[in-house]
């Protein structure tokens, strides 16, 4: 697959997938949203090989979803925090998680998304900002 072509192409879905369309990148963003910031935290939480993690962190930083910040000069150590673009991606992950719970919920007990302040369960839904209609409820078409 030519991700370079996708990342510059006319389709916004293709451009987005070129940046975060692999499992490790999305799981890194998930863990960053849950508070992970350091290489060792990501590695321990994900069980990913160090070379893969390094490449994904570099790509997510270059694509503007994470920001690399130095937290120690001696020895030199960096942390990775979500940027505005990274935080804007979180609802996509939450919708993906809800879709997976609904359609692929077998196996281990499922986690739930809850409001941190109230503890109330959250059910993510994408809606049209103009009408409030849930996306997927009505036919859509793409126009130039």
Describe this structure in words.
The protein is mainly alpha-helical and 144 residues long. The protein has a domain at 3-89: Arc Repressor Mutant, subunit A, CATH 1.10.10.10. The chain is 47% helix and 9% strand. It is built from 6 helices and 2 strands. The protein has helices at residues 3-8, 12-20, 23-33, 39-46, 50-62, 84-103, and strands at 66-72, 77-82. The protein has a two-stranded antiparallel ribbon with strand order 1-2. β1 and β2 form a beta hairpin. α3 (23-33) packs across α6. The longest helix has 20 residues, at 84-103. It starts with a helix and ends in a 41-residue tail after the last helix.
Question: How do the strands and helices of this protein lay out in sequence?
Answer:
Elements: H1 3-8, H2 12-20, H3 23-33, H4 39-46, H5 50-62, E1 66-72, E2 77-82, H6 84-103
Antiparallel strand pairs: 1-2
Helix pairs in contact: 3-6
Features:
mainly alpha; Arc Repressor Mutant, subunit A; 47% helix
H/E order of the elements?
A: HHHHHEEH
* Largest pleated sheet: 2 strands, antiparallel
Radius of gyration, taken over Cα atoms and rounded to an integer in Å: 17 Å
Strand content: 5-15%
Shape by Cα distribution:
globular
Give the class-level CATH name of the domain at 3-89.
Mainly Alpha
CATH superfamily of the domain at 3-89: Winged helix-like DNA-binding domain superfamily/Winged helix DNA-binding domain
The CATH architecture of the domain at 3-89: Orthogonal Bundle
Structural class: mainly alpha
CATH level 3 topology of the domain at 3-89? Arc Repressor Mutant, subunit A
Mean of pLDDT: 89
Helical content (DSSP H or I, runs of 4+): 40-55%
* End-to-end separation: 25 Å
Low-confidence runs: none
The count of β-strands is: 2
Number of helices: 6
User: How are the strands ordered across the major sheet?
Assistant: 1-2
């Amino acid at each position: 697959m030519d991700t370079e072509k996708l990342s510059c192409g006319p389709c916004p879905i293709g451009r987005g997938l070129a940046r975060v369309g692999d499992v490790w990148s999305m799981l890194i963003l998930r863990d960053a949203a849950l508070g992970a910031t350091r290489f060792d935290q990501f590695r321990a939480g994900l069980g990913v090989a160090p070379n893969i993690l390094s490449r994904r962190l570099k790509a997510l930083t270059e694509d503007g979803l994470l920001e690399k910040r130095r937290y120690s000069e001696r020895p030199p150590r960096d942390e990775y925090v979500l940027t505005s673009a990274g935080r804007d991606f979180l609802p996509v992950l939450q919708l993906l998680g809800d879709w997976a719970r609904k359609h692929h919920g077998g196996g281990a007990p499922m986690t739930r998304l809850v409001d941190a302040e109230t503890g109330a369960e959250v059910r993510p839904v994408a809606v049209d900002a103009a009408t409030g209609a849930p996306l997927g409820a009505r036919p859509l078409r793409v126009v130039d």
